[in-house]
């Protein structure tokens, strides 16, 4: 069965980071299993979100579009739209504002979710009368402002560290996701369940999870051999270690406080 037939018949999630686009399609992401629910009940909207991207990439992927000509301008020129460059200036500015808005929304929602699950302090879950998690929003805004300022006043130091950490951290996350998928299927079957109980089965299992895991792992390892990219490892590995140690310390302190309260 070809890839297109596989997507058509069984579905395939290409990028879990498209929650904002899927939400605009009307997908409800207010529960922990919203991705599974979307695949089962609203698969057509998942298709639509991804096909929109694929169609645009196909149109913009011309060999004549490059650093001297925006692929967006090229597409507009193909369909004979006048003032394409001016239109794209407006579109790019709008896209930047939209991206900043969606990024702020995603960051705020992530902090709220982490607080709601007990991974970070519960203070991040507190909302105002309009249901807005103000502390999560403020922390996200401060982080964005700090990154923007650092890109201008410390582009070769602080901003480089931020970009390195954020870029490689995404690869770490996908490595963990692929490994979790492999471990989940084995644990699910070993606990006495049947494969038929799964409402959504990963296509081509275990090929896809293994491919994702090995590809992500190799991308982390191979950048060591590129002097221009090696700096990402220098910053990201210590940062991840500090986050884990900090989280363990916080959990231990939380447990000790609970034990003290119980003794009283």
Biggest sheet architecture:
none
Enumerate how many helices there are, as a single number: 10
Proportion of helical residues:
55-70%
Question: What is the average per-residue confidence, as pLDDT, rounded to a whole number?
Answer: 77
Number of strands: 0
Radius of gyration: 22 Å
Low-confidence blocks of residues: 64-68
How would you spell out the order of helices and strands? HHHHHHHHHH
Based on CA inertia axes, which overall geometry fits? Answer: globular
Distance between the termini: 65 Å
The helix-and-strand class reads mainly alpha
How much strand content do the residues show? under 5%
Summarize the structure.
Helices cover 69% and strands 0% of the residues. The protein is mainly α.
Describe this structure in words.
- The chain is an all-alpha fold and about 260 residues long.
- It contains ten helices and no strands.
- It has helices at about 5-10, 20-25, 35-40, 45-60, 70-80, 85-115, 135-155, 160-190, 205-220, 230-264.
- Helix 6 (about 85-115) packs across helix 7, helix 7 packs across helix 8 and helix 8 (about 160-190) crosses helix 10.
- The chain starts with a helix and ends with a helix.
SSE layout and pairing:
Layout: H1 3-10, H2 19-24, H3 34-41, H4 43-60, H5 71-78, H6 84-116, H7 134-153, H8 158-190, H9 207-222, H10 231-263
Helix pairs in contact: 3-4, 6-7, 7-8, 8-9, 8-10
């Amino acid at each position: 069965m070809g890839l297109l037939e596989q997507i058509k018949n069984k579905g395939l999630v290409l990028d879990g980071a498209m929650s904002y686009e899927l939400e605009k399609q009307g997908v409800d992401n207010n529960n922990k299993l919203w991705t599974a629910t979307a695949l089962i009940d609203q698969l057509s909207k998942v298709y639509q979100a991804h096909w929109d991207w694929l169609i645009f990439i196909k149109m913009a992927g011309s060999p004549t579009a490059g650093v001297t000509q925006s692929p967006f301008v090229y597409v507009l020129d193909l369909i004979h739209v006048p003032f394409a460059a001016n239109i794209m200036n407006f579109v790019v500015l709008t896209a930047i504002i939209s991206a900043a808005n969606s990024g702020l929304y995603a960051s705020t929602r992530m902090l709220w979710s982490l607080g709601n699950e007990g991974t970070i302090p519960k203070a991040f879950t507190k909302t105002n009368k309009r249901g807005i998690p103000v502390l999560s929003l403020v922390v996200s805004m401060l982080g964005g402002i700090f990154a923007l300022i650092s890109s201008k006043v410390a582009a070769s130091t602080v901003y480089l560290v931020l970009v390195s950490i954020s870029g490689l951290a995404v690869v770490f996350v996908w490595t963990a996701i692929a490994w979790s998928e492999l471990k989940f299927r084995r644990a699910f079957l070993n606990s006495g369940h049947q494969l038929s109980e799964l409402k959504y089965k990963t296509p081509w299992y275990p090929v896809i999870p293994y491919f994702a895991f090995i590809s992500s792992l190799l991308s982390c390892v191979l950048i060591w051999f590129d002097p221009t990219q090696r700096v990402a490892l220098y910053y990201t590995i210590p940062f991840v270690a500090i986050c884990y140690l900090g989280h363990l310390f916080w959990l231990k302190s939380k447990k000790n406080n609970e034990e003290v309260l119980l003794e009283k």
